[in-house]
Design brief:
The complex is a heterodimer.
Chain A: E1 3-16, E2 19-25, H1 27-32, E3 38-42, E4 53-61, E5 66-72, H2 76-81, E6 89-96, E7 107-113, H3 117-129, H4 132-136, E8 138-144, H5 153-159, E9 162-167, E10 174-175, H6 182-193, E11 196-201, H7 204-217, E12 220-224, E13 240-249, E14 256-267, H8 268-271, E15 274-276
Parallel strand pairs in A: 7-8, 7-11, 8-9, 9-10, 11-12
Antiparallel strand pairs in A: 1-2, 1-6, 2-5, 3-4, 3-6, 4-5, 12-15, 13-14
Helix pairs in contact in A: 6-7
Chain B: H1 11-14, H2 17-22, E1 31-33, E2 36-38, E3 42-44, E4 66-68, E5 85-88, E6 91-94, H3 103-116, E7 121-125, H4 130-141, E8 148-152, H5 163-166, H6 168-181, E9 186-189, H7 197-206, E10 211-214, E11 218-221, E12 223-224, E13 229-230, E14 236-240, H8 245-258, E15 263-266, H9 272-280, E16 285-288, H10 291-294, H11 298-312
Parallel strand pairs in B: 3-4, 3-16, 4-7, 7-8, 8-9, 9-10, 10-15, 15-16
Antiparallel strand pairs in B: 1-2, 5-6, 6-14, 11-14, 12-13
Helix pairs in contact in B: 4-6, 6-7, 7-8, 9-11
The chains are: A alpha/beta, B alpha/beta.
């Protein structure tokens, strides 16, 4: 169950230009946060800006009761946040939303860019702690404009899963889009492990391309969406995304899902932020 | 038997669990909104607490004065396309467009939960015309678990939504039709997007409204200069949050002096102090809205703050605060 706490700020550091990692002492949140879930963060006395900002949980240290979030300075709220110092407090509310669903079989590809990276790092670290077979069957693909905008590269390397990078300017890794790397990996992993599940978080255009590749390749894809969220817990109906109607038969691994022509809105914060990529209506 | 028919000194009968815990000296938070008796004056505003399910994780719903549920309409509504919200200085704009499950699913799927949670439910409704308002009220009349009806006469984000509460005759006709259709207490929620809110409030009372609640959001807009596009897909939206509190307070003050029915104050309440300002201005109760987005527990914090303030100031009952604004002799009154 999510909680609202005034969390002591333990550490705050710039990890890339305009990107910061904030460490907060929030034991009830650290105890239950899962990859893909997020927290609503705001200054304890904020009136202007007023609303909390949603950030994916990047790490949850259950033993110490700490959580880490990574944010990019994009506006008034995040600009104010850069001034926060250890010793102060922040209001934090979470963990919120539905997490990624990790299957104990087959292979998985984690693909993302920008501030979509934090939930994927948490997922990669979870895979890295699993038996060797699971670690070996996990691939992380990260893209950025330039090398200095790649995030948490060493953290990903430490997890022991395969990491490949792509930059628009070719300064590191593949010269081009990260989505260029996806198809070959899917084919390779499919041949070796049978089933592949793709997890993605990042810019909408990238996620849409990933969703299309997965649909064409017949592999499952979970997308972690971002939207401005006034409340974060499902009451304001502000952060909706258009989705298809769904049908389902069977249970567990024998479950079959499909989609109908019907369209309606779902709340990113409460019904997501993780959705089946096929559920999302991408052209709206 | 209504509570005002109870014999005097029937403390034991009227003691709420809240008071029992706090001891005999705890102030009485109970208030009356016309025929409706609430355990305290703090409610959550319509559209900021859904149908209570999500909020119940953070706030025991039976602790609040009432839960005013998200507007329901005759048929389910999909709502407006995104982006539906954007932040503005000390506030936010929204254009949700009354996304809701419709009256039938409200009754079958949403009300049972609220009933089981012990919540006092004020059902907010919106119709496309006077007859539809009456039809919705009639449908709720026989349903258990609804304590009162609030009329959304003033949604700025749907076509024709503002028509009701900008026109005194339509306001009066709607209130009268609803009153004739239900035995439940009726609260008219008023729009601030009018030249003279007192005239509208008087019309609601003339139509038989048992109380008025104000204010709904102020119509506003915001533009992204980089793209030259409106920040909301609906172009305009309703402004809420601390930014609107002074306007809301002024309107509550004016209306409270002009009408004989209880006034419920809404608009930018973040703290107990904000709520007390509304009570002093003449509101009998308040609704906490946008603040719930900043902290889901805030309505409870407001309630506890009011109780603390009453204890510190030796107040025995909320009624002693209502309209307690002190004006110097020479200050001209805004009331008309």
């Amino acid at each position: 169950m999510p909680s609202v706490i005034s969390a002591p700020i333990l550490a705050h550091r710039e990890v890339a230009p305009r990107h910061f990692v904030l460490t907060l002492h929030a034991p009830p949140i650290a105890a239950s946060a899962q990859p893909g879930q997020f927290v609503q963060v705001r200054g304890v006395d904020w009136v202007d800006p007023l609303l909390p900002r949603p950030f994916s949980v990047m790490r949850a240290h259950r033993d110490k009761g700490d959580i880490e979030i990574l944010y990019r300075v994009v506006g008034k709220g995040t600009a104010l946040m850069t001034r926060w110092q250890p010793g102060g407090n922040a209001q934090v509310f979470g963990p919120l939303g539905k997490p990624f669903q990790l299957f104990p079989y087959g292979a998985r590809v984690l693909i993302g860019g920008g501030v979509g990276i934090p939930p994927l790092l948490m997922l990669a670290e979870q895979c890295g702690r699993r038996p060797e077979a699971m670690r070996a069957a996990t691939v992380v693909l990260q893209g950025a404009r330039t090398a200095d905008q790649l995030l948490c590269v060493e953290d990903f390397q430490r997890t022991g899963v395969t990491l490949e990078l792509a930059t628009d300017d070719g300064s590191t890794g593949h010269h081009g889009l990260v989505t260029d790397l996806l198809k070959p990996h899917i084919s390779r992993l499919q041949a070796r492990y049978g089933t592949v599940e793709v997890f993605t978080c990042g810019p909408m255009a990238m996620m849409r391309a990933v969703a299309e590749t997965c649909r064409d390749g017949g592999v499952g894809c979970q997308v972690c969406l971002e939207a401005p969220m006034p409340c974060g817990f499902g009451v304001c109906m502000g952060c909706v995304v258009k989705v298809r109607g769904a049908w389902e038969i069977g249970q567990g691994s024998r479950r079959i899902k499909g989609w109908t022509m019907e369209r309606h809105y779902k709340r990113v914060c409460h019904d997501g932020p993780v959705f089946d990529a096929n559920e999302v209506v991408w052209d709206e | 038997m209504s509570s005002d028919q109870l014999p005097v000194n029937s403390d034991q009968l009227l003691v709420t669990p809240h008071q029992q815990r706090a001891g005999r000296d705890a102030p009485s938070l109970q208030i009356h909104i016309g025929p409706l008796c609430l355990r305290n004056p703090v409610m959550t505003a319509s559209g900021t607490c859904g149908y209570g399910e999500e909020l119940a994780e953070f706030v025991p719903l039976d602790k609040l004065g009432a839960i005013v549920t998200k507007t329901v309409t005759r048929h389910p509504r999909e709502g407006n396309p995104p982006p539906r919200v954007c932040e503005t200085a000390a506030g936010m704009l929204n254009a949700i467009g009354l996304q809701n499950v419709g009256i039938e699913r409200f009754i079958s799927d949403k009300l049972p939960f609220l009933r089981d949670a012990g919540a006092t439910v004020i059902a907010n409704i919106a119709g496309e015309d006077v007859a539809e308002f009456a039809e919705l009220a009639r449908r709720l009349d026989g349903v258990g678990g609804v304590a009162a009806i609030e009329l959304n006469l003033s949604c700025p984000n749907v076509a024709g939504g503002l028509d009701f509460s900008t026109d005194p005759q339509l306001t009066e006709a709607t209130c009268a039709a609803v009153k004739a259709a239900t035995r439940l207490p009726v609260i008219a929620k008023l729009s601030p997007n009018v030249t003279d809110i007192v005239a509208i409030a008087r019309a609601a009372v003339a139509g038989g409204a048992d109380a008025v609640s104000l204010i709904n959001t102020l119509v506003g807009m915001a533009i992204d200069v980089k793209t030259r596009r409106p920040k909301l897909a609906n172009v305009t939206g309703g402004l809420s949050g601390p930014a609107i509190k002074p306007v809301a307070l002024r309107m509550v003050y004016q209306v409270a002096q002009a009408v004989s029915v209880p006034v419920i104050g809404i608009g930018g309440i973040m703290t107990a102090e904000d709520a007390l300002e509304f009570l002093l201005a003449g509101a009998s109760a308040v609704q906490v809205g946008t603040a719930t987005f900043t902290n889901p527990r805030v309505s409870l914090d407001v309630l506890e703050g009011i109780e603390r303030w009453m204890q510190e100031n030796g107040m025995g009952s909320v009624q002693e605060i209502v309209g307690g604004l002190r004006l110097a002799e020479h200050v001209p009154t805004l009331a008309r």
